[in-house]
Amino acid sequence: MELSDRQEQIIEIVKENGPITGENIADRLSLTRATLRPDLAILTMAGFLDARPRVGYFYTGKTGSELLTEKLKKFKVKEFQSIPVVVTEDVSVYDAITTMFLEDVGTLFVVNNQSYLVGVLSRKDLIRASMGNQDLSEIPVHIIMTRMPNITVCTKEDLLLEAAQQLIEKQIDSLPVVQEKENGLEVVGRITKTNMTKVLVGLVRDDL
Amino acid sequence: MELSDRQEQIIEIVKENGPITGENIADRLSLTRATLRPDLAILTMAGFLDARPRVGYFYTGKTGSELLTEKLKKFKVKEFQSIPVVVTEDVSVYDAITTMFLEDVGTLFVVNNQSYLVGVLSRKDLIRASMGNQDLSEIPVHIIMTRMPNITVCTKEDLLLEAAQQLIEKQIDSLPVVQEKENGLEVVGRITKTNMTKVLVGLVRDDL
Q1: Where is the CBS domain (chains A, B) (predicted)?
Q2: For A42, A91, B49, B154, which has the most beta carbons within 10 A of its beta carbon?
Q3: ipTM entry
């Protein structure tokens, strides 16, 4: 549903001044009550405004209509990202697995001694490594990790839906959210299929 | 956006007979054109109908407004579920891990010799088992799996959003979709955070 400029103006007026009578809205726009009637009817029917007899119009705060899709299209990674869990590249596979369990995450990000991203460890990487009958406390994670530049990353300003598409296309559970620095990428967050599932549930609960 | 009964009727008429003139719609409802005008204006603005001069009204097929949320609320598991990957309870952990990689899934469902669900194997279960320095080809999966009744299941008639909520609440990646039989639960599908992420992406792409 696309609103006209005038309808947008009405919503703004009611948001700031509601409850407010139709007369009063008309005055502020220098229009007649009659001219506004269809707009007010539409805004009320669409759920943007509500009207109470002898009180006036007030803003429902509802995200009417396909505003929902519009909203969804504008979500950014930073609004939904989780805290990243990182290990350094010389940590053993055994310790990495322990970290994964303690932190209850599905993916670990690997950084070098300057704290820049150098790799990603998925649960699959860890399972594969641990099947090898080797001593897991002897193998450093940099041997088994997926390394730069074969890592898909995103930034906190990226659109949430672009990140979701990356997760699907690359068939991965998680993306590191990074910030570019002079000598590499700093890991500032993670965005996962769990975040996406929560967004889906939240869309309907209206608590986003 | 809630439509009135009359507006719903108008949509039905246009769906079946469009393109159709306003006159014609009014005739079918035994109303005057003037009476219908506000309804037609609202339906057009909201994107349900479109009007072309000298042609008339036609149905856009667009899911207007919060129809999107309404639609989302009605999605069922069966419309989005994936094929389940099952192993029998006497299979070794080693073979289960191999199956997980070959089938490229994050969760395996474990069935007994009657093909009824008895357990679930997550990647975490498999990592934990493979850290134990034991011979993985000697340990049957029923030793390490999460077992009934500690398994959260759903049916294909369940609402997708209920399944999504279960995934979040129980902190799991996947639910078995089951069908009740006389002696147990048959596994007929799986629904995962990947499915949920795809739904999220699809909502905006409008390809659901």
Answers
A1: 80-136, 145-208
A2: B49
A3: 0.70
A125-149 pLDDT, tens digit per residue, is 988 888 877 888 899 999 999 998 8
pLDDT per residue as tens digits for the range B57-109: 888 765 444 456 667 888 999 999 999 999 999 999 999 999 998 898 999 99
For tokens 């989302």, the residue is B72
Options 3.40.309.10, 3.50.50.60, 3.10.580.10, 2.40.160.10; CATH of B73-192: 3.10.580.10
CA angle centred on A126, ends A123 and A132, rounded to 5°: 145
Q: What topology does CATH give the domain A73-201? A: CBS-domain (3.10.580)
Compute CA distances B169 → A8, A36, A60, B4, whole Å.
39, 47, 30, 37
Pull the structure tokens for residue B111.
């069935």
CA–CA separation, A167 and B103 (whole Å): 18
Chain A residue numbers with beta carbons less than 8 Å from the beta carbon of B124 are 101, 123
Domain with CATH 1.10.10.10 in chain B: 5-65
Q: List, by residue range, all CATH 3.10.580.10 domains of chain A.
A: 73-201
Which CATH code for domain A5-64? Answer: 1.10.10.10
Tell me the whole-structure pTM to 2 decimals.
0.71
Residue of B nearest to A123 (CA): B123
In this complex, the residue of A72, A194, A201 whose CB is nearest that of residue B203 is A72
What's the CATH number of domain B5-65, 1.10.1740.10, 1.10.10.10, 1.10.40.30, 3.40.50.10170? 1.10.10.10
**Cβ contacts of A199 on chain B, cutoff 8 Å:** 200
Contacts of A109 (CB under 8 A, 6+ apart): A84, A85, A86, A87, A117, A119, A120, A121, A176, A187, A190
